[in-house]
């Protein structure tokens, strides 16, 4: 997979040399190119932004440098044999970045990221390139960052670990908390390792029992507890078939029951009264 990143802070992307993404590059699974947007300015001050039409606070990134940068990156990539690029535009007003989108990105041969600073990029840039290639405007969560560079790091790490030959085995993705198509997406419960006693704290006995069935059941119950506590929305949208008899027993103990309103709008389960939490 080829990755291009155009940014006014190339040094912000240094972590792409480290850890999992660095390893993917070293193994030849990822070909990363980071570009300084200011290379495509022509004035003494390397200006990339200007005041917004219509007024208002902040600055808007100008069409000129972005247009020249993207034309050059596209030409260079095609020259190097890359094909079917997709543009990934990190923005707090994008669609949520999810594991499903990470899987979709991991299946594409060429991603071009355009992390912006200030109030974002002149809309005409996205509109122009959208006539030539798929454009994904994505947000990594409901909070506001000063720029899209950190989002590029997040997205790249989520995608790189899905590439064949980057993590240990392909099986390792099947159990990801947010694996697409899973009947139920549950959060992982707690994990433990040696020593068996630390500062007076032991390990749940069942994990030392060697009873694989009981261990699997315990882990499932812990995942249900954790998910109801932290992400009740994930439980609400699980279809009834997602849960076996023991799951339903555990959910019932946690105060959850099938939605009496008959799952309107895909809500199959409802949360306990707040007082019980
Ligand atoms: Cl992708 N960019 C910025 N600037 N803020 C964000 C974001 C992206 N996702 C969430 N907040």
From TrEMBL:
Keywords: Cytoplasm, Methyltransferase, S-adenosyl-L-methionine, Transferase, tRNA processing. Its EC number is 2.1.1.228. GO terms for biological process: tRNA N1-guanine methylation. Its main location: cytoplasm. It catalyses: guanosine(37) in tRNA + S-adenosyl-L-methionine = N(1)-methylguanosine(37) in tRNA + S-adenosyl-L-homocysteine + H(+). GO terms for molecular function: tRNA (guanine(37)-N1)-methyltransferase activity. It is found in: Cytoplasm. The keyword Electron transport does not apply. S-adenosyl-L-methionine binds at residues 140-145. It is an enzyme of class 2 (transferase). One of its GO terms (cellular component) is cytosol. Signal peptide: none annotated. Specifically methylates guanosine-37 in various tRNAs. PANTHER family: TRNA (GUANINE-N(1)-)-METHYLTRANSFERASE. Belongs to the RNA methyltransferase TrmD family. Homodimer. This is tRNA (guanine-N(1)-)-methyltransferase. The gene is trmD.
